[in-house]
């Protein structure tokens, strides 16, 4: 009986010792470091490049117009913001002198045209007279001298008719010349669009820009029916970009909205705006024209060009990668982080494809820049992303 009692005491003492040892171990263990974890999932990974500086929404057609000659504004047929049609008159300078020259040229043409008609009628008459005298000469009813003279007069009349027609043509061409000079005083819309800006009022003088000197245009017209994005890409990324590649367009004016686009042009030169940051201009068009009806030229824009895509692959947040393509994987049994090297594929700023080393539902540390988050750290998970 005493043996049984002693055995029970021994078991109780052993239990107490183990329990005390457990309490001591808990007390001596470091306090866990809070860590943010991410559960590995299957998803989409893209390889992309983006612009280094803000891009700009551009109009496919924009013209800054100035008159071909200087002068005083006589007619201003439009106002800012107005929509105009192709060849519509926008502005006209004082041109009464040129209009008078056009009227004079038209009257001269009418006069020379009538003179040509008169000369040709006279030529017809001399030709008929020469024919009659020639018939008389054949019958020996007139002299040879009269026959020769009639023939000469007929030829002279024909030449006078031709010369009169040439003078009429010259007068007609002079009308075209004076009309061209008159048209130089008028500004017409080269295409249908909207008037963005007007620099000049009725009565003011406007002049064309002298060579090498930039002056404000008289009228700025923009065709907003076609827009595209112009964005600078780092020279290092430019060789990977080809015409036709898909792109995502985002604008500061439209938060959380992506526009689908495509690369339409890669500039054939490097832009040296900064010696240490050389770029290549990329143009991208909107895939759906209805998307940009509310956009305006001049908006800032960002361009993300999709180089390659992987579907349904194991992916890891790029921010979780440690130098050397390693991650800190979380062991749920001992609550310890363990460094693990992985093999990666496509990558962008958001996700990186994992070829080897991780599988779905593994948990890795996101907050790798937090103090104490290293290989072997004892951690306490925070709310997962």
Keywords:
385 residues, alpha+beta, conserved putative lor/sdh protein from methanococcus maripaludis s2 fold, Elongation Factor Tu (Ef-tu), domain 3, six-stranded antiparallel β-barrel, four-stranded antiparallel sheet, 3 helices, rod-shaped
Structure overview:
Helix content is 29%, strand content 37%. The chain starts with a helix and ends with a strand. The protein has 4 domains: 29-45 and 311-381, conserved putative lor/sdh protein from methanococcus maripaludis s2 fold (Beta Barrel); 50-61 and 222-310, Elongation Factor Tu (Ef-tu), domain 3, CATH 2.40.30; 67-90 and 189-217, no CATH class; 95-184. It has 3 helices and 21 strands. A 6-stranded antiparallel barrel has the order 4-11-14-13-12-15. A 4-stranded antiparallel beta sheet has the order 8-7-5-10, with no helix packed on it. The chain has helices at 2-28, 96-138, 144-183; strands spanning 33-35, 37-39, 41-50, 55-65, 71-76, 83-84, 89-93, 186-188, 193-198, 205-206, 219-234, 246-251, 254-266, 279-286, 300-317, 326-331, 336-341, 343-347, 351-356, 363-365, 379-381.
């Amino acid at each position: 009986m005493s043996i049984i009692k002693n055995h029970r005491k021994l078991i109780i003492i052993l239990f107490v010792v183990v329990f005390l040892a457990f309490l001591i171990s808990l007390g001596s263990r470091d306090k866990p470091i809070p860590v943010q974890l991410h559960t590995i999932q299957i998803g989409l990974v893209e390889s992309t490049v983006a612009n280094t500086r803000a891009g700009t929404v551009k109009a496919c057609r924009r013209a800054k117009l100035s008159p071909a000659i200087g002068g005083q504004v006589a007619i201003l047929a439009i106002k800012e913001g107005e929509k105009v049609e192709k060849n519509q008159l926008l502005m006209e300078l004082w041109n009464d002198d040129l209009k008078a020259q056009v009227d004079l040229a038209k009257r001269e043409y009418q006069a020379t045209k009538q003179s040509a008609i008169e000369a040709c009628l006279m030529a017809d008459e001399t030709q008929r007279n020469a024919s009659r005298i020639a018939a008389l000469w054949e019958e020996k009813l007139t002299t040879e001298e009269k026959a020769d003279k009639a023939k000469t007069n007929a030829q002279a009349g024909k030449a006078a008719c031709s010369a009169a027609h040439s003078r009429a043509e010259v007068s007609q061409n002079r009308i075209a010349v004076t009309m061209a000079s008159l048209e130089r005083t008028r500004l017409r819309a080269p295409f249908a669009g909207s008037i963005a800006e007007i620099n000049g009022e009725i009565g003011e003088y406007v002049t064309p820009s002298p060579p090498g000197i930039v002056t404000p245009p008289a009228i700025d017209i923009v065709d907003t029916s076609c827009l595209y994005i112009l964005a600078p890409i780092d020279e290092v990324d430019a060789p990977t970009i080809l015409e036709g590649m898909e792109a995502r367009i985002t604008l500061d004016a439209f938060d959380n909205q992506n526009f689908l686009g495509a690369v339409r042009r890669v500039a054939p030169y490097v832009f040296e705006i900064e010696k240490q940051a050389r770029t290549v201009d990329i143009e991208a068009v909107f895939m759906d024209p209805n998307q940009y009806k509310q956009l305006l030229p001049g908006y800032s824009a960002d361009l993300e060009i999709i180089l390659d895509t992987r579907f349904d692959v194991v992916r890891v947040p790029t921010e979780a990668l440690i130098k050397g393509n390693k991650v800190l994987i979380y062991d749920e049994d001992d609550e310890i982080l363990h460094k693990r090297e992985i093999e990666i594929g496509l990558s962008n700023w958001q996700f990186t494809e994992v070829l080897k080393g991780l599988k779905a539902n593994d948990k890795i540390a996101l907050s790798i820049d937090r103090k104490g988050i290293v290989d072997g750290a004892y951690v306490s998970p925070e709310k997962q992303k």
